[in-house]
Amino acid sequence: MPDTDELKINYNLTKHTQMILPITAYGMPVLKKLAVDIEENNEEVQALVANMFETMYKASGVGLAGPQVNENLRIFVIDGSPMAEEDPKCEGFKKVFINPEIIEEYGEEWGFEEGCLSIPGIRETVMRPEKVLIRYRDENWQEHEEEFDGLRARIVQHEYDHVEGILFTDYLTPFKKRLLKKKLTNIAKGVAPHDYRMKFPK
């Protein structure tokens, strides 16, 4: 666990004065860190939740995690409605996950082509278990323990990876990573095409 001073720095959410936040790009250190728990629910957390949803919608995403807006915090938001044609259970699947903890992943592994707002222009097939059991707090600080399957589980797993410092490209084979090396390098340099606000490594 980080010391108290570090946690205070990570928990400084007051700088979120805009609704649309820049999305951190591949290569930003925060994307590879283990995020820390949010200790209490307050107005700053509520503001962050609102800004994350606004940012996610502006970028046409279905999920967004704290590290993707440069906050080293265990939080992600989801709205799977755009994927309802592929999985009807995604209709109205809008949730906030605070301090999430995956209890179990199970079922047959299946592949699906994933993308990420932090890695624009790259989509690759990732294998994941078909079901997930997760414990989390919602935006009202109520605790839940729920099971999700299909695309709902995949969205949750993908976003949960972000608060664990894992990117979907980490699941790719060494050969596939070599093929993507130039594209990933360009993203880290800020020369990849994108149509939403992003924050790139300096």
TrEMBL record:
InterPro entries: Peptide_deformylase, Peptide_deformylase_sf. Its EC number is 3.5.1.88. The active site is at residue 159. It catalyses: N-terminal N-formyl-L-methionyl-[peptide] + H2O = N-terminal L-methionyl-[peptide] + formate. Belongs to the polypeptide deformylase family. It is an enzyme of class 3 (hydrolase). Fe cation binds at residues 116, 158, 162. The keyword Disulfide bond does not apply. Its cofactor is Fe(2+). Binds 1 Fe(2+) ion. The keyword Protein biosynthesis applies. Keywords: Hydrolase, Iron, Metal-binding, Protein biosynthesis. Pfam families: Pep_deformylase. This is Peptide deformylase. NCBIfam families: pept_deformyl (TIGR00079), PRK00150.1-3 (NF001159). Removes the formyl group from the N-terminal Met of newly synthesized proteins. Requires at least a dipeptide for an efficient rate of reaction. N-terminal L-methionine is a prerequisite for activity but the enzyme has broad specificity at other positions.
